[in-house]
Design goal:
Protein name: Myosin-binding protein C, slow-type
Shape: elongated
Pfam families: fn3, I-set, THB
Keywords: Actin-binding, Cell adhesion, Immunoglobulin domain, Muscle protein, Phosphoprotein, Repeat, Thick filament
Oligomer: single chain
Number of helices: 6
Helix content: under 10%
Distance between the termini: 90 Å
Largest sheet: 6 strands, antiparallel
GO biological process, one term: cell adhesion
Organism: Sphenodon punctatus
Radius of gyration: 69 Å
């Protein structure tokens, strides 16, 4: 699609595109037609949309450039439809009630992206002799290009060529020339003018080309002539891109090489671009049609009118609906403004200028101009004569009353009000009303300043309507600036100057008094000062006694007025009484105080609080914002230090002196609640509780505990346990009693265990414990569950300590003190036996309690060694355990020591083990030697295990004695056994006989030197079983669980190092408990040892054990937990 602007020529190839190219968008093109005046006609264009993604754009034009979309109305309608089945757009143009000036050339253009198609067609309107077309000057004409211009003299018909005139004129004069010479298509003419200015290329086909442009009058005849270089070349004529065919309108002539085209009866439709083609070349020209001028047949007439009325100026011209311009004082009237008071009415040849609501500004010379003449006339707008129907009247108004001024005139006009020559503006108090011919001025609450001469002037008349308003004003005291009750507050010691506005005409006489005493205008401390519009009460250096009611009295001829003013002298308040400290905490206290006896005449706004240490003189402010209450909580004090506090009162005047200090006080904090409250035991009539001290005690220390309980009753409330209970902040719900608590211990106890006695069997109680110190009692620690007062039968279970599961060894003379815990409810019966016989309590002390039994031997003797059996019995339930106690002493000396042989520097000794081994295995011997001469003993070897030895490196020629000490775990024997004979080391020359040795047999069957012991393990934590053995050859070891060999199980790891055999059980569970056996065998025999492994319940068991809970209580808890789990399953 090509685009060009005003003043640009139409591209030359645009005409080619119109017809030379095949239609690329149109399926059906609109065709020309004829219609009679007053009838309707329709033009149809169709576009196929199969290859189009959106609707194409279609435009309808009349002539070359007038877009008909802006002309749609009652005589022209555009319509478009779309058929989905055939995918064809249909575009229709309806011309309704055609007129003669609708005739002419029309064009339809369709565009889609880069595609373009167009089609031209003619409309002939029958009714008078017309050519092919005639540009309209009516509803389908463009007439908005005429600009404002001054009135020119009536022109005579110029005898010049308009085309030549435009080519040689300034572009600024184009519109003027177009209006003067009747050019309607100025824009198209300018485009063609620009195109004709281009230099024409020399043509080989034409000997003479067309002139750049031709001009013809409407209805005239024009002749186009070209000369061909080759007369045989085919020649064709075109108009606006459409080929011209011979007809009565278009006549072709040939004269030699000349080719002539005649166009008869030229109309506006013939105003177009023409070109002729000869082979591949062409030449073009422009034809311009000039219409005859429009004459003014009846001129304008001078007219008179009144302001506000409608005025009309009319004239008649020679043509219907002709283009006419209106001027005011030589300036064109813009009729297209939205708010213009000027309107033009056209009735055929008659043109009427209408002026709505005329004013004096419309006085001017108005003129009308056509293309063939002009006319002018004067318009005079005057005011109508004005009559005063009701004048203003003088008024006398009392101050504060309403002023109402009213007048009536003969016309409905606006006007202005004046007071003493100044314009009156409306306000909330001053209101101006205008209704028809009546004008009002209303002033509410009249003032003294409202007095004066008032004037009303109707617009635009120069008439004055006057009156006089007089205001009378009785004396009055104005107390608007005072507060409620006319109270005036003054600070003691300052100066009061109270000025009260007064009014009255004539000025009133002023008198002040307090009580029966009149205040005179003198130099006294309290005096009155009077001025024309005010009176002033002055008090120098106000005192409290100056408070009271003062009276002011005004009097003049119009009356009198009296007012009372309450003078209030205020001061800082008195200091408050000494504060009281009613409660103290760890670093805080709560204090209160009474307000001061005298508030200084002003309400107390608040208080400041200060504190200091008792032994210090420095006070510290505690609040920087006033507190309005008489209670305060000082914080951030040091616990255990004595403090004092004091208070300041504050009112609007200032701050009082400080109060007396409070009595000294010491911040002390109660302790935190006791921890780990648990049930330690229950019988049919008592409950034993135990706990641990509080986590935080503080400077006040801990004096003791109070135990309270209450019975489970009918009034309970369910609440979420606080963090202080065992459940924690998100623990389970528990029943919490709401009854009163009973103190179990009348006197405070410092123990962490207490038994509550005298309880009824079968009842349920709640128990709580409080910690006490000098600051009071702490928050209670409540046991989360009710406790049933009933002794529960608990099977007996002996918790034998690990170190007693193997032989317990002590030396003679040492004390034996063994504590064996057990569990069992009710109180279990404990019995002891030694080697199957009852223990002799005269030698061995036995002490039993509810949870454990103690065997005590003050000085152990060897006779106390043996196997001790313990039996715990509850009703018919029994549990047994065995303890091996071994009391050891130093051994006796060997029985006999003999010198078996002597040779060279060697002596062979033999001996037998001692008769008394001290109740312990002999671990070795110490051999000593002594020279017979000196008998000084020297140790040859220590910790020797065999009962024979060869002593070497003896001195030849000496004689030796030998002695041997026995040794066990207690040490060497007290005595040694010496050889009865001596060993003589002979000198050289003596024949040495080599001794004969028998081979020693080192083989022996497997034997466990350290057995397995029964072990407790915690679920989830690795456990090990250890034992030691010896044997030669090295025995092979096998581990069994419950008599089943452990093989290829990744949870077990077995290893042996230096005779120590270890079985490691990785993260055992309760199912790993049982009897474990270690079996060793070699060629000489077999030996085995076994133990029991018990796995306790996981993290809970371990945590309770680490918290110090006795094992029997943990075992009972775990058993209940397992039973509860099994019942759930």
């Amino acid at each position: 699609m090509s685009v060009w602007s005003v003043g640009d020529g139409v591209p030359e190839d645009a005409d080619k595109r119109d017809n030379s190219q095949k239609s690329i968008l149109f399926v059906e093109k609109p065709h020309g037609g004829s219609v009679s005046v007053g009838e309707n006609i329709t033009f149809v264009a169709k576009v196929e949309a199969k290859d189009l993604l959106r609707k194409p754009t279609v435009k309808w034009f009349k002539g070359k450039w007038m877009d008909l979309a802006s002309k749609a109305g009652k005589h022209l309608q555009l319509k478009e439809t779309f058929e989905r089945q055939t995918k064809i757009y249909t575009f229709e143009m309806y011309i309704i009630k055609a007129k003669e000036n609708y005739a002419g050339n029309y064009r339809c253009e369709v565009t889609y992206k880069d595609k373009f198609d167009s089609c031209s067609f003619d409309l002939e309107v029958r009714g008078k002799i017309l050519g092919e077309g005639q540009d309209d000057a009516g509803e389908l004409d463009f007439s908005g290009l005429l600009k404002r211009r001054e009135v020119t003299e009536e022109r005579q018909e110029p005898a010049i060529d308009v085309w030549e005139l435009l080519k040689n004129s300034n572009p600024a004069d184009y519109e003027k020339i177009a209006f003067q010479y009747g050019i309607t298509d100025l824009r198209g003419m300018l485009k063609r003018l620009k195109r004709t200015r281009r230099e024409e290329k020399k043509s080989a086909a034409f000997g003479k080309i067309l002139d750049p442009a031709y001009q013809v009058d409407k209805g005239g005849k024009v002749r186009f002539v070209v000369e061909l270089a080759d007369p045989t070349v085919e020649l064709k004529w075109y108009k606006n891109g459409q080929e011209i065919r011979p007809s009565g309108k278009y006549i072709f002539e040939h004269k030699g090489n000349e080719r002539i085209l005649f166009i008869n009866n030229c109309q506006l439709a013939d105003d177009a671009r023409y070109y002729v083609t000869a082979g591949d070349e062409k030449c073009s020209t422009e034809l311009f049609l000039r219409e005859p001028p429009v004459l003014v047949t009846k001129g304008l007439e001078d007219t008179n009118g009144y302001v506000g009325e409608k005025v009309e100026l009319s004239c008649e011209v020679s043509e219907d609906d002709a283009n006419v311009k209106w001027f005011k004082n030589g300036m064109e009237i813009n009729l297209e403004e939205a708010k213009s008071r000027y309107k033009v009415k056209i009735d055929g040849k008659k043109h009427i200028l209408i002026i709505d609501e005329a004013s004096k500004a419309d006085n001017a010379t108005y003129s009308v101009m056509t293309t063939g003449g002009q006319s002018a006339a004067k318009l005079s707008v005057d005011l109508r004569p004005l009559k005063i129907m009701h004048p203003l009247e003088d008024q006398t108004v009392r101050l504060g009353k309403e002023i109402n001024l009213k007048c009536e005139i003969s016309e409905n006009l606006e006007g202005r009000w004046y007071k003493n020559g100044q314009l009156v503006q409306p306000s909330d108090r001053v209101k101006i009303y205008h209704k028809g011919r009546i004008h009002r001025l209303i002033i509410d609450n009249s003032l003294v300043d409202d007095e004066g001469d008032y004037l009303f002037v109707p617009e635009p008349y120069k008439i004055n309507i006057t009156c006089r308003v007089h205001i009378i004003d009785p004396p009055k005291v104005h107390l608007d600036g005072l507060g409620d009750g006319n109270v005036v507050t003054v600070v003691a010691g300052t100066k009061l100057r109270l000025e009260l506005p007064i009014s009255g005409e004539p000025p009133p006489k002023v008198m002040w008094s307090k009580g029966d005493k009149w205040l005179m205008d003198s130099g006294a401390r309290i005096r009155a000062e009077n001025y024309p519009d005010s009176s002033c009460l002055v008090i120098d250096s106000a005192e409290r006694d100056d408070s009271g009611v003062y009276r002011i009295m005004l009097k003049n001829e119009a009356g009198e007025d009296t007012a009372h003013i309450n003078i209030k002298v205020v001061d800082i308040p008195d200091p408050p009484p000494a504060p009281d400290v009613i409660e103290v905490g760890e670093d805080w206290c709560i204090m209160n105080w009474e307000p001061p006896a005298y508030d200084g005449g002003s309400p107390i706004l608040g208080y400041f609080i200060e504190r200091k240490k008792k032994q210090s003189s420095r006070w510290m402010r505690l609040n920087f914002e006033l507190i309005k209450e008489t209670t305060f909580e000082p914080k951030k004090m040091i616990e255990g230090v004595a403090y004092e506090v004091r208070v300041f009162a504050v009112n609007a005047i200032g701050t009082s002196k400080p109060s007396m200090p409070s009595k000294p006080f010491v911040p002390l904090a109660v302790t935190s609640p006791p921890t780990m409250l648990a049930v330690d035991g229950v019988t049919d009539t008592s409950v034993t509780m135990k706990w641990r001290p509080p986590d935080h005690i503080g400077a006040a220390g801990l004096d003791g505990y109070v135990i309270e309980y209450c019975f489970e009753g009918s009034k309970y409330s369910v609440m979420q346990l606080s963090q202080a209970t065992a459940g924690g902040p998100r623990g389970p719900r528990a029943w919490v009693p709401s009854e009163e608590w009973i103190v179990a211990n009348p006197e405070m106890t410092d123990k962490t265990r207490y038994t509550i006695n005298g309880l009824p069997t079968g009842s349920k109680i709640f128990v709580r414990v409080k910690a006490l110190n000098a600051a009071g009692s702490s928050d209670p620690r409540l046991h989360p569950q009710p406790i049933l007062v009933k002794e529960v039968i608990e099977p007996p279970k002996i918790r034998l300590p690990r170190h007693l599961k193997q032989t317990y060894i002590r030396r003679v003379g040492e004390a034996v003190n063994l504590v064996i815990p057990f569990q069992g409810r009710p109180r279990a019966k404990v019995s002891w036996k030694k080697n199957g016989a009852h223990v002799d309590k005269s030698q061995i002390n036995i002490r039993n309690s509810e949870n454990d039994t103690i065997i005590f031997i003050r000085k152990a003797e060897r006779i106390h060694s043996g196997t001790y059996d313990i039996k715990v019995k509850v009703d018919n339930l029994v549990d047994r355990a065995t303890i091996d106690i071994q009391i050891v002493d130093r051994p006796g000396p060997p029985k006999a020591v003999n010198i078996a042989d002597v040779w060279g520097e060697n002596a062979a000794l033999e001996w037998t083990p001692p008769k008394d081994d001290g109740n312990a295995n002999i671990t070795g011997y110490t051999i000593q030697k002594a020279d017979k001469k000196s008998m000084e003993w020297f140790t040859v070897i220590e910790h020797y295990h065999r009962t024979y030895i060869t002593i070497t490196e003896l001195v030849i020629g000496n004689e030796y004695y030998f002695r041997i000490f026995s040794e066990n775990m207690c040490g060497l024997s007290e005595d040694a056994t010496m050889t009865t004979e001596s060993a003589v080391i002979a000198k050289d020359g003596k024949v040495y006989k080599n001794p004969v040795y028998e081979d020693f047999n080192f083989t022996e069957p497997p034997m466990f030197t350290q057995p397995l012991i029964n072990t407790y393990a915690v679920a989830g934590y690795n456990a090990t079983l250890n034992c030691s053995l010896r044997g030669n050859p090295t025995p092979k070891t096998t581990w069994l669980k419950n008599k089943v060999i452990i093989m290829n199980d990744p949870r077990y790891r077995m290893f042996s190092n230096q005779g120590v055999c270890t079985l490691e059980i990785r993260k055992p569970s309760p199912y790993d408990g049982g009897t474990y056996t270690c079996k060793a065998m070699n060629e000489l025999g077999t030996a085995e040892v076994e133990c029991k492994l018990e796995v306790k319940g996981g993290v809970s068991f371990f945590r309770l054990l680490m918290d110090g809970v006795p094992p029997h209580i943990i075992d009972s808890y775990m058993r209940e937990l397992q039973e509860g789990t099994s019942e759930t399953k």
